[in-house]
Records
---
Amino acid sequence: MAIMDQIEQKISAGLPISRQDAGFLFLEATDEQLSRLATFMKSRFHDADHATYLIMAIVNYTNVCVAKCDYCSFFRLPHDKDTYLLNTEQVCEKIDSLVKFGGKLVGFNGGFHPKLRIHDYAELFSQVRSRYPDLEFYEMTVAEFMFSCKVSKVSYDDGAKILAESGTRWVTGGGAEIMDNSFRKRHSPGKFSVEDYYFAQEAILRAGMGSTATMVIGFDESLEERLNHLESLRAFQDRVGGTLASFLCWTYKPWNNQLGGEEIPTSEYLRWLAVSRIYLHNIRNIRTSVLTKNTDALLGLKFGANDFDLPTEDEVTQKAGATISHDFENILQTAKNLKIRAVQRDSWPVRFWHQSKKPNLSP
Ligand code: SF4
C-alpha cells in the first residue's frame, strides 16, 4: 500500500501518526490532502466550518533581556540607552486601550530582566487582575518564569506556588520557538534547554495554573528539528493528561536582528499548521497567527486551525517587521469568504482533560 494510503488509514482509524508520517506529509502531500486531513482532525473537536477568536493585546512590560537570542529584534541589554520597564499605571494604560477595542485577553511578555523577582511579577499580576475582573490574563511565558525563578533563587515548584497563590491563572508556553537543543545552542544558548523547559512547565501545571504550547518556524531549522519539537510536545501533552489548552504556531520575522534571513511563504506556514494539527492528535485547539500572517492567517482555518487572536498591539513582533491592523472587519471577511463562521469567544478554562484518568503530576 502506498505510504499516503497507510497514513490516511491511520488517521481515519483514530490512530496517532508517527514522526516519519508527519515528515512525509509535509514533504509529499498535496495542499488539498493536507487541508482535508487536517480538517478531519479538527472535526474531532470542533465543527469544521466554525472558528473562534479573541481580541487581545500583548503588553510588553520591559524590553530588558539578558538572553541575547540572535533571532530577537526586541531586546535591549540593561546598560543600553533605550530600555524601559513599565510601572503598574503604565501597564494599566495599555490595558485600558485594549478595553476600548472590546478586547478580553491580555498577554504579558517581556524579557529576562535581571532585577525582577518572582514576587514582583506576582504583585503586578495580582493588582491587574483585581482591577480588571472581566479580563483574562496570560500572565507570563514559561521562559520568563524559568529565568525569574533562577534569579529569585526559588525552585520551579516554589515559584509556581508563589504565582498561583497571588491569583495567577496562566503561564503560557511562549518563548518555545523550536524545541530542539541543537537549535537552542545555535540561536539562544542563554534561554533554556528543552528538558528544563518541560520540567518548569510541569511545575506550573502542578501548581494548578494553565499553560499552552507554541512554536515558531522559519529560522534556519531543519525538518528534523521541527519534528523534534512536535514529538516532544505530543509526549509532554500525553504525560500531563491533555492539560495544555492550545498550540499556536507563528512565523519568524527576519528584520532588525542578528540572524536576519528571509520570511517563509504563507504556503509553507499553512502546510506546517496542517501537519501540526494532524500529528498533535491530543491537542484540542490549534491556533493560527494573525499577529504574523495578517489576513493570510485565516487561511489556516482550512488547514486545521480552529481559533485565532485579533491583536491590538505587540512590540516584539512589530520590531521584527510584523504589522498590526485594527480593521478587524476586513480580517474577519477572510473567514466569511472561506465560508467559516468565526465568533468571538470567552477565555478557555485553565485546563482541559482529554484522558479519562487525571495524571499524577507529583514531582
Ligand atoms: S526572544 Fe525573548 S528571551 Fe530571547 S532575547 Fe528576545 S526577549 Fe530575550
---
Amino acid sequence: MDTSGNSAFPPVPNPASSFRLPVILSVVLGLVTLAVIVGLCVYVARRMKLSIVTEPVQPKPSPVIKFWEADAPTMQKFFLKLAQENPVRFTAQQLCTFTENYNTMLGRGGFGSVYKGQFPNGVEIAVKVLNRGPNKSIEEQFMAEVGTIGRTHHINLVRLYGFCYDQFMSALVYEFMENGSLDKHLFSDNKKLEWDKLHQIAIGTAKGIAYLHEECKQRIIHYDIKPGNVLLDENFAPKVADFGLAKLCNREDTHVTLTGYRGTPGYIAPEFMLKNFPITYKCDVYSFGILLFEIIGRRKNTNVAGNSDSLDWFPKQVWEDFEKGKLMQLTEACGIEEKDRAAAERMALVALWCAQDSPDMRPPMSAVVKMLEGGVEIVPPPKPFRYLFAVGNDVVRAGSGSGTGSGSTTSGGTNSYWYKETTPVMAKYEITVASV
Ligand SMILES: Nc1ncnc2c1ncn2[C@@H]1O[C@H](COP(=O)(O)OP(=O)(O)OP(=O)(O)O)[C@@H](O)[C@H]1O
Ligand SMILES: [Mg+2]
C-alpha cells in the first residue's frame, strides 16, 4: 500500500489531524480570554486601591531658568550698565527669575503690584508690575520716561535699576527698601519710631522733593506725596518713591477719585477741585504739609469716612490750637516728649505754611528744608483751609502775588516770605542785626 501520498488520488483525510485543529483554536481562544479577564481584574483592583489610598500630589518645581549661569557675558554687561547708573532693560523671563516666579508680594498700589526679588549678585530688588490700562503708553514714550526717572539720582530718592517692556507686560525694577513704607510705621499700633527719627525722615523727604522740583534738569512733579510713597532703608533713612510715575502711567487711569481729580484722597491740593486752575509743583508742597501733620499726630488726618471738614480733621485742630497759642499743649497731647516739643512746634508751623490754600503762598521745598532744620525763624502762617468753607477760585487765588511763587527772597537780603534768617547763636542770645 502506497502511503507516500504520491498516488493519483487525493490523499485520504486523517481523522486524528482533522480533530486536533479546532481543539488548538479553542485552547488559544480560551487563553486569550483568560488573559483579558486577568488584565481587567488587575486594572479594576488598581483603580479601587487608588480611590481608597490618595497619595499626596507633589508640587511641580517652578520653571525657573538660571539664565545667568548660562549667559555670564550678558550679566556682566548688565552690571556694567548699572554701575554707569543708566536704567537697564530686562526681559519678562529675567524678571520671573529674579522674583522666583513672583512668589513674594510686597504690596499693591494704584499703578500695580510690587514683588520682592534678587539680582544674581545678591542685591535685593522690588519689581513693580504696572497695570496696563486702555491708554497704555507706547514703547518709545515709556522708555523716554523711564530714562528720565532712571537718571534722576539723589540720596533721598528711590533708585530705579531698570525696566521691562514687551507685548504683555511693563514693569519697573527698584532698589529694595528694607523697612518698607512710612505709613506702616506711622499708623501701626506698635509705633516704635522715635520722634527724632521721624523729624529726620521729614527733612530727608523734603530734600528729595526739593531735588525733583528745583535741581533736576527738567522739573518733576510727583503728584502723589504721601507716607506710602516714602520708603525707609535699613537705617530708616527716607527715600521718595514713585516719582515720574504720574506721567509714565497716565495717572488718571489709576487714581481717579470720587470728584474726578488726580492723586490720593486726603493729600490732594485744593486747586485740583477747580476747573481750569493751573496745577504746579506746589501741589506736592500741599501734600507734603498733610504728611507733616500725620507725623506730628502719628495718625491719619482723616477719620475712616474721609470727611475732611469733620471736626476730627487733625490739620484744622492744629490751626485752631496755633491761633489760641496752644501748640505746645497739642504736641504734648500727641505724646511727644518735652525735649522734642520745640522741633514739633516748628514742624506744625511748616505744615500750616505748606497747606496754604493758595499755591503761591506755599513755600518752595528748599525753604521747607531750611524751616524744618531750624536755624531760621518761621514767620507766623496765615489761616489755611478756607477752601473747606467756601470753594471757589477766589479762595485759592487769595494771597497770590503776595507770596513769591518762585520761592526766591522777597525784599532782598536773606529773609524770605516764610522765614527770617538767624544764626542759632544770635537767636539764642536774642541779638538782632543792626539796620542802618
Ligand atoms: N522699593 C521698594 N522696597 C520695598 N518695598 C516696597 C518698594 N516699593 C514698594 N514697596 C511696598 O509695596 C507697597 C505698595 O507700593 P505701591 O507703590 O504699589 O503702592 P502705594 O505706594 O501704596 O500707592 P501708589 O500707587 O499711590 O504709589 C508699599 O506700600 C511698600 O510697602
Ligand atoms: Mg507707591
---
Amino acid sequence: MAVGGSGSRLAPAVCGVKAFRGRVDLVFGPAPVAEACDAVISGARARRSGARFGPAIQDVARFRLAGSQNSIAPMKKLTDDVWVLEGFPPYAINVYLLGDVLVDAATRFAAGRILRRLRGRAISAHALTHVHPDHQGASHAVCASLGIPLFCGAGDADAMETPGLMMQKMRPHWLSRSIGGIWQGPAHPVSRRLREGDAVGGFTVLETPGHTEGHVAYWREADGVLVVGDVVCNMNIWTGLTMLREPERIFTPDPALNRRSARRFLELRPSLVCFGHGPPLADCSRFHAFIASLPRDT
Ligand SMILES: [Zn+2]
C-alpha cells in the first residue's frame, strides 16, 4: 500500500499525504484501524511506490529480505543495524529490529506479518518496550515460532507471564478493556527481566516507567539512536496526524511518572528517535522542546 498514493485503495479513508510548510508528512488513520487492516490483509502483497517521506526518513534504504522469494517484505533500514517493520497504516504501530533482536511485536494479528518480514534472518531474542497489547500481542507466537527468548522490563515481567494481569494493570476504561482484550497476546515466560544499564541488541536499557510499571527505552550512545516506546508518541492515534504527544492518559496509569521518564531524554542528544507510534524523528531540538514543554507535575 502506497502511503497516500495510488495504492491506498485498501483504506482510502484513513491514508493520505499532508503537505505543510513545504514538507510532506505521513497522514494515516487512527491506530485502532491499523491492526484491523493488518488482520484483513494479512498475507497480501504490500506494494510500495517509493512515496516521499518526511525529512527524518528520506534516506531510508529499502531492501529485500535474504531468502525471500517475493517483493513484499520490506523492512526499512533507518540506520546501521536498526530497521522498522511496517504495518498498516505505516508507522501506526511500530516493530523494530535492533541488530538481531526484535523489539516489540504489535498486536496478536501481526504475527504472520512479522514472521514473514524476518524470514531468512537470524534473530537471537525478542525484547519489549512494555507489555501493552499493541506491543506484546504477537510476542508469544514470534518467540514460539523462532525459538527465541523473551526479554522485558523487570516491572512488566509478571504481567507478561500471568494471564489476565496485564489487563488488570491497565486503567479501567472501556476502550482499553475492549480493544486491549482483542489485541492482547497470550502470556509467555520472560527469560530476562531487564534493568537499567543492561545491554540488548547493541543498545543500553533505560528504565522509563509510567506508561507501564516496567516500561524501558533503548539507547545507543555511539550514534545517538533512541527507541522510546510509548514514553513519547509521534502520532495522534485518533487522527493519524504526525505530531509529538504524550501517550493517551486512558492507557497510562501514571502520567506524572511517565513525564519524569521523558525528562531523562533531555540528558541525551539523540540523532534519531524511534517511537512505538509514529514515524522516526531526526530533529533532536524539536524532541527536546516538546519534552521541556510538558507540565511539571500534577
Ligand atoms: Zn502503544
